[in-house]
Amino acid sequence: MTDNRKRILVVGAGFAGMWSALGAARLLDAARTHGEQIEVALIAPEPSLHMRPRLHEENPLSLKAPLLPLFHATGIRFIEGSVRDIRAKDHEVEAVGTDGKAFTVRYDKLVLASGSALFRPPVPGLDSAAFSIDQISDAARLEAHLDALASQPDTPARNTVVVAGGGFTGIEIAAELPARLRSILGEHTAVKVIVIEQADAIGPDLGVGPRPVIEQALSELDIEVRLNVAVKSIDTDGIVTSNGERINAETVIWTAGMRANALTKQFNAERDRLGRLHVDASLRVTGEDDIFAAGDVAFAATDDAGNHALMSCQHAMNMGRFAGHNVAADLIGGELLPYRQPVYVTCLELGPWGAVFTEGWDRQIKLVGNEAKALKRQICTEWIYPPEADRKAAFDAADPMVTVVA
């Protein structure tokens, strides 16, 4: 590498980051420019894609896919480090390596794809006494805790789990827990799983379409749902709710909402209520000529009907393809493509009961039970994984105009 080589830098190795790097490398390969060299580099703490949509499952430490073979095949440079500061005026980022030492990386164009993190409001005891499945390390900590319950005295508190938050993640982990607890504590143990949701309905952001199916599944799984109530405080022995009730439980799992990665705060740009940067149709950050955003850090319109991308791999993958194409096109003077993803589906796993699959923003039910669960398995074990480490296959998959992601 020479000092005068131009560089596209992608921050983050999640779904949006991986596909952004591939999208940029694909366009540069197709353009076959013979002038100045352009490097596509991706910076992240490790060269692996974490299967975050699967962290409600067992054995979370296995839920990652290596990326180095794919990057080697496609000519993408991997830089190991955690970005701490983005100096847009200077076109550089400051990062910290695994050795704890800071270093700087220069760029000509940047794609921010640093993802999101679990929302942690100032609830007493949340940081010290609650578990989560936000990241692989969090899910592994929860799994170790659950496995260790078998060595504890058989009490109602030991056998009770409170899931704080009745959204997508809360529903999926709650639906898994009764069978998982019985496999650890014994099939005849009287386990109790309670979902606490401050809204007046389970899955408030999922709408009324799939709600009857969700309610049926949770009821048949003997999961208790308490609505119009919030968690006031948490300790190692349970929670206190906003109406003053004490629930004794040795396991409390916090799933209440997500926020965009804190790097979005470094820009003097408009953000939505989740901290996502407003972007134009090409996914360029408003007011930043050389910075694009994709995935959970981008507030992006998916169509002309007023719908916007959600914090999901479904949208992150396609946003990455478009952001990668556009950041490379912007650098070489090519045509930028407007990001559009009018097709929207939801596939919610409901533990041993099955799943529910819907289509459209109004979430019309198309599949339920085992049939929906089979589709969910295909999505989570095949479709969201990286493409094979073959240059042509990977670039074909990274084409934003021919790839449809369900």
From TrEMBL:
Gene Ontology molecular function: NAD(P)H dehydrogenase (quinone) activity
Keywords: FAD, Flavoprotein, Oxidoreductase
Pfam families on file: Pyr_redox_2
Sequence ranges assigned to domain FAD/NAD(P)-binding in this UniProt record: 7-320
InterPro entries per the UniProt record, alphabetical: FAD/NAD-bd_sf, FAD/NAD-binding_dom, NADH-Q_oxidoreductase
Cofactor: FAD
Any one GO BP annotation for this protein: aerobic electron transport chain
Similarity-based family: Belongs to the NADH dehydrogenase family.
Protein name, entry field: FAD-dependent pyridine nucleotide-disulfide oxidoreductase
